[in-house]
Each structure stands twice: as structure tokens, then as C-alpha cells.
Specification:
- It is found in: Cytoplasm.
- By secondary structure, the chain is of the alpha+beta class.
- It has two domains: 4-104, Orthogonal Bundle (Helix Hairpins); 121-421, Bira Bifunctional Protein, Domain 2 (BirA Bifunctional Protein, domain 2, 2-Layer Sandwich).
- Helix content is 42%, strand content 22%.
- The chain is built from 13 helices and 19 strands.
- It has helices at 4-9, 11-20, 27-66, 69-104, 143-149, 155-161, 172-190, 204-209, 235-240, 297-314, 361-366, 389-399, 413-416, and strands at 125-130, 153-154, 168-169, 194-196, 201-202, 222-223, 228-230, 245-247, 254-263, 282-292, 319-323, 335-343, 348-357, 368-372, 375-378, 380-388, 401-402, 405-407, 420-421.
- Strands 1-11-12-13-16-10-9-4 form an eight-stranded mixed beta sheet.
- It is elongated.
- It binds one RNA strand through residues 40, 43-44, 46-48, 50-51, 53-54, 56-62, 64-65, 72-73, 75-80, 83, 246, 376.
Length: 422
Amino acid sequence: MLAIQLLREKKDWVIARLSVKHFTQTHLIDEILQLDEQRRQWITEHDQLQNLRNTASREIGQLMKAGNHAEAAQKKQQVAEWNEKINALKNQLDEIEQKIQQLLLQLPNLPHESVPAGESAADNVIIRQGGSWPTLPENALPHWELASRYDLIHFDTGTRLTGSGFPVFKGAAARLERALIQYFLDYNTRAGYVEYLPPLLVNAQTAFGTGQLPDKEGQMYFIPEDQFYLIPTAEVPLTNIYRDSILQPEQLPIKMTAYTPCFRREAGSYGKDVRGLNRVHQFDKVEIVQLVHPDQSYQSLDEMVAHVEGLIQSLELPYRIVKLCGADMSFTSALTYDFEVYSAAQQRWLEVSSVSNFETFQTLRMKIRFRDGKQTRLVHSLNGSSLALPRILAALLENNQQADGIHLPAILHPYTGFTRIG
RNA sequence: GGAGGGAUGGCAGAGCGGUCGAAUGCGGCGGUCUUGAAAACCGUUGUCCGUCAACCGGCGGACCGGGGGUUCGAAUCCCCCUCCCUCCGCCA
């Protein structure tokens, strides 16, 4: 959510920034400002009346004590009149505040100055590319075929147990999945991230805090009886841990990591995008989150990018880092880098991580501040995958297939207990 | 799920319906003392909104789990919800 104060002070600049995200409903801003004007006027009137009432009530108390009931009754009469106005104003205020809030929620986050507008994902900027291209045997298979050849992942069984997009991992695949989680968490905690194991179900307030509600309601699984949402990413519970708090500056930066399963409805997806592990409804992911001083958040973003890059490098996968253009960025982000690994057998890039700075877009909703001298200021929140498992697993299987099986990168050997599948 | 008790400032813990944003203690911050520290003593200590000044800050309003109600006036009385504790039931 954008601060209304920003709209008041730098409206034109805000509109220019929003245009980079191809957001054109600038009339919303005018509406907001108009309503805000009205709101402040009403607040002033409301508060003045309350002031009158407070004074009169105190006087009534004195009069009663002095036994002057006649004058007290007269004042009561007067207060009753004010009360009517106060209540009317209060109702108007509640209504207008709700309206403003609702409009404010329709404004996406401002993209960072360095973000190009672009027209589509094709205009994303490739920052750098790394890792070495694998040389595959002639009859290289996509991971879903490798999965059945080596008895690793059962998509059809998952469909029978639940529905499509809920794969069952078996034997070496299950072990490899667990090994990756363990390795990723070790890698993150070694870099100073504190490990958490958060709830997988959250309430509406929590889902609102990170921006899943109201924007992406249909993306989340929902349990009506308890009004709980299944988390689409660990970002949601992790970032909300510090909701409604005022931090000491020396507590920053706060670095958190967690492994969780993630649940996404992914309505409307089809075709090769959803083949195999490319897109599933339940998957494992290790996430990193940072809450940082606003002056340092872009440094932190670079640090997180380097962190994730190091992790992918250690897995010996070919990758590239892409800076998203305005047209492809999420509603909540100010700057996002996507990490993609090349899946040789499918001959396509698969997104395995997305690292973003949200600046104050989330922390305003969550009221996460820090003490800056005499005042409080919002911290910046950032997060990234480190890493999303299914596509990493797909790339590992595909890129490392040889005639005699799948050779795992050395870094994983201590975690898996085996070096080769097949 | 059933019965009872509770929810107050960073923490602990008071609070006859009016002068309570809220006693007291601890903690924090500043100071006196000290070579330094501790102790002692003195002072200070929340958040949000509006408004004026726009450097400090002044003024007004709101906030005692959340929401409604009674009243001229509610932390204090009533109702609903949530959460916590104790007991019973169920259960990994």
C-alpha cells in the first residue's frame, strides 16, 4: 500500500512512476486526494465537537457535585445536540476512510527508478548468465520421463490421491528433495538467516499484510470453517512475524529463512507450462526474508541476489539473472530479479527464484517500524526464494542425465548419501 | 466440545463511572556523585490522527484485547467476539 502522504506531496512523480508499471488509472489518485481533503475537514470538525463535549462533561460533574442540577440539565441538553453531530460525523468518517482505503489498495507499488517500462516479459533485462551448459546424451529425456524411468515421481498417483498438480515423490527423489531442503537451510543459516518453522495456515490479516489479500485471493486455498488460508509462500508468515512492532535500529537487518510447503491454486494454467514439475499446486520452497533500514534496502537486495546466485552456482546449474521490466513486475514489488535455470532436455528457462524489494509497500500494511531518533519510520521488506524445489529438481535430473544414470553435483553428496540415481 | 477465571503502558502490577494516558515497581534514557563502574539520588520515558509552527515543539482528538451498547461523561457498568489460564472430555 502506498502512503497517502506520498500522494499528497508528490502526486505527479507518483503518476510518472506508476506509468512504468503501465498503470493508467490515475483518476484514482485524484479521487483519493479529494476524499482525503473531505476526511480531514470532517476530522477537524469532529475533534472540535469532542473537545466541547469533554469540557462540558467535566463541568457537568462539577455542577452535580455543587448541587446545581438545573444548570447541569441544561448542559446535558447541549451535549446531546453535539453528540448527534459527533455521531453523524463519525459515521461519515468511517465510510470515507473505508472508501479511501479501498482505493488506495488498488494502487500498485512504485517501481524503482532503474526499472524499464517494457511491454512484456520479453523486455526483461538479462543481468548476467552463468554456469556451464551440460552435454547431454542424444536421447536426453525431460524430467517427467526420467521420473518414471527411475521410479522417482508419480504424477498419476498424486492425481488419484488428490488431484492434478500434487505429485508423489518416491525413494531417491524423496530423499533428494529432503537433502536439497536441508542443504538450502544450512546455506542460508550460514549466511546469518535465522531459521523458522512457521504455520502453513494463516488468517486473513496475515495474508493481507504481505499483499496476498485482497489482490490474489483466488490464488490461495481457503478453509472456510476456520477462515484460514494455506500459505502460497513462507514469505507470508515470516514477514508477518514482526507485524505491529517498533524495532530498535540495532535490531536491523532482520534476516529470516524457512522451509515450507507452498500451496497455489494456479487457476487457468495449461499446456507445457504445467507439464511435470513445471507448475504444481503443492511444492516445497526455502525462503529468505529481510527487514532492513530503508537507506540500505538496495544493498540488501544485491546481497540477496549474490546469495541466491552462489547457491545456484554450487548446484552447478546453468542460470541467468533477469531484472523484470515494469510490464512483468508484481503488484507489490519495487524491484525484482528473477533467477532462471536452463532445463536442457526441455530446452527452456525455468524460474527458480524471485528476489524482490518491496520497500514500504508491505510494511505500511503490517506497521513494521523502527525507531529513528525521536520518530518512527517504516522498515523495508525484501524476500526471495532460496530456492524453489520442483524446478531445481527438474533441472538437476535433466541436466545431469548420463547413460549410466543421473549424477548429482558434489555439494549434495553428503546430504543425499548417494552420488548417482539409476 | 463443556464449566469457571482473566486480558491495563517494554515487563510486572494498581485502578470508588468524572480531574486516568492511567499509581507503584522493574527496565530504558539523561544527569549528580565516582579515576571508572556499581549503589544511591534527581529528572525523563507510549502509539496513532488532525492542526499550527514546519528546528525544538505547541494545541486538539483517539487508544487500557477487538466490536457494539448504557451515560452529560466509561479502563471502570452491560452484550457479542477473539485470545490466554485452570478443570473435564477428545486426541498426535
